[in-house]
Request: fold
Amino acid sequence: MANLSGRRAVVCGSSQGIGRASAQLLAERGASVTLVARDRRSLEVVRDGLPVTNRQRHHVVAVDFADTDALRSEMERHVTEVGPAVILVNNTGGPPGGPLADATVEAMRDALTKHLMASQTLLQVLLPGMKEAGYGRVINVTSTSVVAPIPGLGVSNTVRAAMSNWARTLAHELGPHGITVNGVLPGFTDTGRLRSLLEARAAREGRTTEDVESAWKESIPLRRFADPLEIAQAVAFLASPEAGYVSGVNLAVDGGRTAAQ
Reply:
């Protein structure tokens, strides 16, 4: 198990699902974790359940990613108060589904702000600390739509692709400072978002959720959905010193689904 003792991690979208599991693993491995999302109470519940076997202290920052000025201000204040972080996990929840051609400009702008612009803001706040430490890990939890667009998720497909090229560009620019930038591409993962997408597809097509779920599982070589912890294991590896020579990659954790397409 990788030792992250003495390192601080910022985990976004950490009140549930993959973000929560990632925070749990990073804390287990010794990192001090700052949880970032909108709902302070939900964040506090997660924080209070994180391991402190390394006597580390965990924190929360409640802020709306749609307001990048507030995000910058709150994170700058936080870094000043508790110290720099060298691990950044971008895990903002995906935008609503629907055809791309039907998406409004406002919906596109909102998604780009919450994902790309917010990630850029966080990077700029944390980058000085990473450079000073000679160690940095930027990990974007995105989607297999980076490899193959997913029907019915037009805005998400577009934003995820932008995040992927953002990461690859930064991997080139920041490598000389000992900073790696990578993407984790979850496949169908058993989270609240997946369940809402299942229900929406079933309602749209006049089918049962069980029927849609069965069909989706048939498209996966392993014939099951992932547990959020399985995605978090990939995040924790990429955050570790052992992944120091891995940068600029998109790691699909999808039960073989994209490989089979």
